[in-house]
Amino acid sequence: MPKTIVLIVAAGKGVRAGGDLPKQYARLGGRMVLSTTIDAFMDHPLITKIATVISPGDMELYQEASNQFGDRLLPPITGGKTRQESVYNGLQALKAHAPDLVLIHDAARPFVDALLIGRVVHGLNTHDAVLPTIPINDTIKQVHGGQVTKTVDRSKLFAAQTPQGFKFPLILGLHEQAANDKTCRFTDDVSIAEIAGIDVHCVEGSFDNQKLTTRNDMKMAELGLGAQTSYETRVGSGFDVHRFEPGDRVILCGVKIPFDKQLQGHSDADVAMHALTDALYGTIAEGDIGSHFPPNQAQWQGAASSTFLRHAVGLVRERGGKLVNVDVTIICERPRIGPHRDAMRTELARLLDTDVSRIAIKATTTEQLGFTGRNEGIAAQAIATISLPDIGEEKDV
Q: Under CATH, what is the fold of the domain 231-389?
């Protein structure tokens, strides 16, 4: 079987799909678009490895999108200023792996299916370049100055899709030639083969394999997913306590608050974030912080609690979960929480990648009763609510 590597192009910066993130890192069905795209190729029997080209400033986002995948996913490759440059960088990096075939795919096409991938790969058995296409169903008009000038015969018009497949040495050489010609600018890779006179074989694409470009594309895709998937509501709770020790600040929900004591703990002792992390683990029945980050392991000494929270968030998202809201209650006599509430909500919203309107933080005392009333420490409790794809009907017990 030929060695086939998929090169996913995810270095773009377009945000027309909505939000502040490039569309490949936007959420669709509670999961990053790029995660869904990678997953489409991950278990395909004809695919050997997968590589992704990313923008140099997107490493943290990429790691979040890719941390659930195994060693079939190669290290990310730094992209260029244009798509053409990014593909060129990707092909150069793949030389070390010596593939026979390469499939070049847009990250913003997350709904590519196994049959389409197979058609492209099999097409390369007898052709040097393969392009999936779909027919144009709409009537096409030629327009000039706001006026229709001609109705175009659509019988010979097709929309190009990805993945576009190539014999690796061929497309590598063509991209190297194009890189040396500064006048060459191509929006897809088949165009480079066309200019070089290479015969491009067309295979049937898929109407589901649409590219997500605008906010409306994302909404329509979300509606499509919602129509196919039923969701259930899950609620998890968490509780944690840390005692005071000598110090000059406490950390609560990731915010450093000046104080005449600090909280004692193996990590940074962020009692509120620990409670919230356990609440998220609870929504998917995944144990607690101690089971994932044992306190007897030196590597977690002084660790930022955001590490634990991000891990819990990642597990929820791997299961297709979407955050509905979180509600954190901090129990202490001092320090005062009110002046820091907005900063805490903002930091949690950032870590959870959600809107601050979904984050509630409250504070209360125990009327000077118990260990918190004696100002010996701080307690926190949290409730997290998520929407999770339904795994099936409930069974009687």
A: 60s Ribosomal Protein L30; Chain: A; (3.30.1330)
